[in-house]
TrEMBL record:
<dbReference type="Pfam" id="PF04264">
    <property type="entry name" value="YceI"/>
</dbReference>
<comment type="similarity">
    <text>Belongs to the UPF0312 family.</text>
</comment>
<protein>
    <submittedName>
        <fullName>Polyisoprenoid-binding protein</fullName>
    </submittedName>
</protein>
<feature type="domain" description="Lipid/polyisoprenoid-binding YceI-like">
    <location>
        <begin position="8"/>
        <end position="175"/>
    </location>
</feature>
<dbReference type="InterPro" id="IPR007372">
    <property type="entry name" value="Lipid/polyisoprenoid-bd_YceI"/>
</dbReference>
<dbReference type="InterPro" id="IPR036761">
    <property type="entry name" value="TTHA0802/YceI-like_sf"/>
</dbReference>
Length: 185
């Protein structure tokens, strides 16, 4: 069973990456979001834990300024009307000692859909600054069309420029803010 201190943790933005990958013609484009805020609340029974994350969609970075500007437009994220993407967990299921499935509600462009993330617990330990950190890696997949993001350009042979499936990849480090004094971890 995974041993983690019960308490409230904040994502460390300098040691966390919220990334994605999507098919583009004959290759794959990768990107990440630079600005986000997230809280993990761990409980003595790890399956009672929860996660909340808010991502600033205008902080998208695919390494190409023109593409990033297009992704911010109404064709894709429409950040003027919908500046944030949010995730709120609804459950945690333990698959093995260090592997979990976190279910939750993902909201993009005002559309909320359930999603499952496969999460690997990477450990807990002290840092050089006197704090306590926890690490996790998560992955999942969504259909962008389910969130109303259906812009595309048709190509020869019934193909399209941009794939529908988006692979999500999150590597996170969080810092303990407050320990749950009532927990018997």
């Amino acid at each position: 069973m995974t041993n983690v201190t019960a308490g409230t943790w904040k994502l460390d933005p300098t040691h966390t990456e919220i990334g994605f990958q999507v098919r583009h013609i004959m290759s794959k484009v990768r990107g990440k979001f630079e600005t986000f805020d997230g809280t993990i609340v761990t409980r003595p029974n790890v399956t009672d834990s929860s996660v909340e994350v808010s991502v600033d969609l205008s902080s998208i970075n695919t390494g190409t300024a023109d593409r990033d500007a297009h992704l911010r437009s109404a064709d894709f994220f429409d950040v003027e009307s919908h500046p944030s993407m949010t995730f709120t967990s609804t459950g945690v299921r333990q698959e093995s000692d260090d592997e979990f499935v976190v279910t939750g509600d993902l909201t993009i462009r005002g559309v909320t859909k359930p999603i499952e993330l496969e999460v690997e617990f990477l450990g807990e330990g002290g840092d050089p600054w006197g704090g306590t950190r926890v690490g996790v890696e998560a992955k999942g997949e969504i259909s962008r069309k389910e969130f109303g993001i259906d812009f595309n350009i048709p190509l020869e042979g019934d193909k399209v420029m941009i794939g529908d499936k988006i692979k999500l990849q999150i590597v996170a480090e969080a810092v303990l803010q407050t320990e749950d004094a009532n927990a018997n971890a």
